[in-house]
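Residues determine shape. Next comes a sample protein:
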Amino acid sequence: MPRRGVDLADGTTTANIDIPARLLAGDVNSSGGVTSSDVAQTKSATSPGTVNASNFRTDVNADGSINATDVGLVKSKSGNAVP
């Protein structure tokens, strides 16, 4: 598909733009780093462990439940950060 600009609400089209994005496995609170806060947040979501709109980021392995596997994955990424 060819690149094209972004269509604006007023009907005009802008030039091509880049949209920066970052993804850091284990950074469930989107702080830019994986810390003990991410581990704690994931641990607290294991009870009841069902994924919903407010805790879906803690389902790190995206298997549909929040459990010890997710906590372990977050712990394994602890100390990582994005610039």
